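re the bet — no i am not wrong, look at it urself. input seq straight from the record:
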Amino acid sequence: MSVFSFNNAIVRTPARSVVDGLRAGDHAGPSAAGVATEHAAYIVALADAGLQVTTLPPLEAFPDSVFVEDPALVFGGTAIILNPGAPSRAGEAAEIRTELARQFAQVIELDAGHADGGDVMVTPDAVYIGLSARTDATGAAALARALAKIGRTARIVTPPPGVLHLKTGANLIDEDVLLVTAPMAAAGMFPGFDCITVGDGEDAAANALRLNDWLLVGAHFPRTIDKLAARGFKLVPLDTREIGKIDAGLSCMSLRWQA
C-alpha cells in the first residue's frame, strides 16, 4: 500500500486563542477569522481527496491545538501518543488521547523525552525523525522504539540549524521524491531520493501534503507550483498565509491514515 493512501483524517477546529500561537520572531500573528477560513478550505480539500474527516472541538487553553499532527502519530491500526516539546503544548496529547483510543485498536505512549509529529516523515522504507528544538534525542530514541513495536524502521537525522521541524524543510511528495528547501537539499540527509528544491524565496512551500493522487500546496508560492506542475503533480493550491504566521503549514493540521 502506498504511503499516500488515506481514507480517514482527524482535524481540530482552531480556537480563538490561535492568535497567540507559537511563532519565531516578533512578527504579527494571524487573525482568528483568517485561520478559520483557511482551515475550513483545508477540510474541504481533505474530503475532496477522498478522506472521511473527524473534526474535534476547539481547545481555547491551547492556542496551537489546531496542529493535531504534533501530539500524535497514526498508522492503519495504531496511534502513538507523542510529547510535544513546547511547554505550552504539554497538555495536548491528553486532550486527543480519547479520540485516538476510539479510532485505533492500539495506542502506544511515548515513554521518554519530547517528540513533535512535525519532525516525523514517513517514507516507504523508513520513518525519518528529525532532531529539533521540539524533538530531543531521548524522545527520538523512544519514538524509534515505539515504531519498532509495529514493524517500522526509524532513521534519526539532524536538520540544518534554524529548521523548526523536519517537515518544515522536507516532505515526501512521491514514493522517492522530496520537496525540500535549499539548506535541506545541501545537507545531504536523504540519499537515494530525488529532491525538488522549492522556488527562490518560497521556503515555506516545502510543507506540501500528498493525499492519494493529490498534492496540497500553498497557493502563494508560484515558482514552486510551476516546478511541481512541470513534473506532472495534480496540485490543490490552498491559502496558508494566516497559518504561516504561526510557523505552520499543510501537514500540521491533520492526522491521516488508511483504515
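see?? The first strand starts at residue 8 and ends at 12. told u. also The CA atoms of residues 23 and 246 lie 5 Å apart. so pay up
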